[in-house]
Design a protein that fits this description.
The complex is a heterodimer of chains A (362) and B (81). In chain A, α8 runs parallel beside α10. Chain A has 11 helices and 15 strands. The radius of gyration of chain A is 20 Å and the shape is globular. The mean pLDDT of chain A is 92. In chain A, the strands form 2 sheets. In chain A, strands 1, 4, 6, 7, 8, 9, 10, 11, 12, 13, 14 and 15 form a 12-stranded mixed β-sheet that branches. A 3-stranded mixed β-sheet of chain A has the order 3-2-5. Chain A is α/β, with parallel strands linked by helices and 362 residues long. Chain B has 4 helices and no strands. Chain B is an all-alpha fold and 81 residues long. In chain B, α1 runs antiparallel to α2. In chain B, 52% of the residues lie in helices and 0% in strands. Classes of the chains: A alpha/beta (362), B mainly alpha (81).
C-alpha cells in the first residue's frame, strides 16, 4: 500500500492479516528509502547485517532507539527541503531529539492525526479550550513537542481560547465568557495530563468551594503526555475520570499516547479505556532480555512503527516505555487493531513526555 | 469590500506579504505561512466570510489559488474573483 491508500480507508478498519501485509509493504519501502538517502542509517543496517530482501514482515525490521535522535542528526532529505524541525520535550539540561520534516512528511502527519482523532470526536470542528498558555507556540522556528501537540489538535477548534495565562493561571473570566457564548455546543478541551490536573482540575475544585462552577458536561477532553506525576499523587485513570466528572460534569475523556519522533500516529484511548493502534502504525512489545516479541498480556519494551516518516529514518523505533498488549482486533468498541496499555517508563530512563517533563518542576 | 479584497486581506495581514506576491503563493513559501500561520489564515477567512471549514479543506488549502477553489465549494459558496 502507498501512503495515499492508507489515507483513503477508515483508520481502524484493517483486520490483523491485511494490516500485517499493508504495513510490511509500506515499512519495507520506507526502509529502502532511508537506506538510500541517509548514510548513517544505511551504515546501521549494514552493521546489524540487515537485508531487506530477507525480511518477511515489518516485525523483522531493525528498530532505532529513540534517544539516537538526540545524539545524531538523522535525516533523509537535503537541508533545503527541511521545512520544520521538531524537538522532544525534555527537562532542563536534558538533550532533546531533533526531527527534520519536509513538506510531505509534515502534511502527512497532520492528515493522519485528523483521520485518527476524527474517529473519536466526529469530523466537525468545535469550539476549543486549550488547557495551556499561549506562550508555548510563540517560538515558531523551533517547535517543541508541546507546541506541536497543541497546534496539531488546533485544527479541530473552530474558535479557540487558551485557558491559562503565561504564568499558568486559569483565566476564569475568559473561560466563563467562552462557555457562555458556546453554551449549546459540543466543546473540545485539549491539554497535557499534568497541566490539566494541576492548573485546571485543582483550580476548578478551589473555585467550586467559592461557589463558582463550570458545566462541561457537553465537553470532550483529550489529554496526553504522561501520568508519572499523577501516579505519584496516587491519581489513577479511573480516579481522574471520576473527579473530572464530579467537578464539572466532564465525562467524555480520552488519553493518548504519542511521541514527537512519530508525530501524527497517535494512539487514542477508546471508550473502553484501551489505547488503540490505527492502520497507520503499530506497537510491538519486546522482551528486554533478547528483544523477541512478547505475547499478548506480557509486559515488555514498546517498539513503535509508523507509515509516515519519509524525511527522517524514524519509521521503526524502540521507545523507553514499558507496556503490554491487551488484545488484537477484539476491543468491545469495535475498532480493529492492537490495543495496549502503558505501564510507565523503563527504570533509569530519562523523564520525557510533555506532561512529565513539566511536572518534574513540581 | 469585495470578496477578493477580503480574501487578499487575510493573506496580507497574516503573512505580511504584498498583493503582488499573492498569485502562486504556496504553503511554506514565506516564513510566516507555516503551520501556525496557516491556522491564523483559516481563522481570518472564517471570520471574514462567516463560514466554518472542514478539516480536510484546511489541510488541502495549500496555495492562494487552491484556496479560491475550496471557498467556491457549495458548502461555503464564497466566490472570490
Amino acid at each position: 500500500m502507498t501512503f495515499e491508500d492508507f489515507l483513503n480507508i477508515p483508520p481502524f478498519s484493517l483486520p490483523r492479516q491485511e494490516k500485517e501485509k499493508a504495513l510490511t509493504e509500506r515499512l519495507l519501502d520506507l526502509t529502502k528509502l532511508h537506506q538510500a538517502n541517509c548514510p548513517a542509517y544505511a551504515n546501521m543496517l549494514e552493521a546489524v547485517g540487515f537485508n531487506s530482501d530477507e525480511a518477511e514482515s515489518y516485525r523483522d525490521l531493525p528498530f532505532l532507539p529513540v534517544r539516537l535522535f538526540k545524539e545524531m542528526t538523522l535525516k533523509s532529505v537535503p537541508d533545503d527541503e527541511v521545512v520544520k524541525t521538531m524537538t522532544s520535550s525534555g527537562t532542563t539540561g536534558q538533550a532533546v531529539s531533533k526531527i527534520y520534516l519536509d513538506r510531505t512528511t509534515s502534511a502527512n502527519q497532520q492528515k493522519t492525526m485528523v483521520k485518527i482523532v476524527s474517529e473519536f470526536t466526529g469530523s466537525g470542528r468545535m469550539p476549543m479550550i486549550i488547557i495551556d498558555c499561549p506562550g508555548v507556540v510563540k517560538d515558531r522556528a523551533m517547535f517543541s513537542a508541546r507546541g506541536a501537540g497543541i497546534l496539531g489538535f488546533s485544527i479541530f477548534g473552530a474558535k479557540k481560547i487558551y485557558a491559562l495565562d503565561d504564568d499558568m493561571k486559569l483565566d476564569v473570566g475568559a473561560l466563563k465568557e467562552f462557555l457562555e457564548v458556546h453554551k449549546d455546543r459540543k466543546i473540545l478541551l485539549f491539554g497535557f495530563t499534568f497541566m490539566v490536573w494541576q492548573h485546571f482540575y485543582k483550580e476548578l475544585v478551589r473555585l467550586k468551594d467559592e461557589g463558582i462552577t463550570f458545566d462541561l458536561s457537553n465537553g470532550i477532553l483529550i489529554h496526553g503526555g504522561g501520568w508519572k506525576k499523577l501516579i505519584s499523587e496516587a491519581v489513577s485513570r479511573d480516579e481522574f475520570h471520576r473527579r473530572m466528572q464530579e467537578v464539572c460534569g466532564l465525562a467524555d475523556i480520552h488519553d493518548y499516547y504519542g511521541m514527537v519522533e512519530q508525530t501524527g500516529c497517535i494512539y487514542m484511548e477508546c471508550e473502553c479505556g484501551r489505547l488503540h493502534a490505527s492502520n497507520f502504525s503499530d506497537v510491538i512489545i519486546r522482551r528486554p532480555l533478547d528483544f523477541s516479541e512478547a505475547d499478548v498480556g506480557e509486559t515488555g519494551v514498546i517498539q513503535v512503527v509508523s507509515t509516515i516518516p519519509e524525511s527522517y529514518p524514524g519509521h521503526s523505533l524502540l521507545t523507553e516505555d514499558e507496556g503490554s498488549i491487551i488484545g488484537i482486533d477484539d476491543c468491545p468498541c469495535g475498532r480493529k487493531g492492537k490495543t495496549f496499555k502503558i505501564n510507565g517508563r523503563l527504570k533509569n530512563a530519562e523523564i520525557r513526555g510533555c506532561s512529565d517533563t513539566y511536572a518534574a518542576k513540581f | 469590500m469585495t470578496n477578493l479584497e477580503k480574501y487578499n486581506q487575510a493573506f496580507i495581514e497574516n503573512f505580511e506579504v504584498t498583493e503582488d506576491q499573492l498569485p502562486g503563493l504556496k504553503y511554506q513559501d514565506v516564513e510566516a505561512w507555516d503551520s501556525v500561520g496557516h491556522m491564523g489564515l483559516i481563522a481570518s477567512l472564517e471570520e471574514a466570510f462567516d463560514i466554518m471549514m472542514d478539516t480536510d479543506d484546511i489541510i488541502d488549502f495549500g496555495s492562494y489559488e487552491i484556496g479560491k477553489q475550496i471557498l467556491a465549494k457549495d458548502a461555503y459558496g464564497v466566490v472570490v474573483e
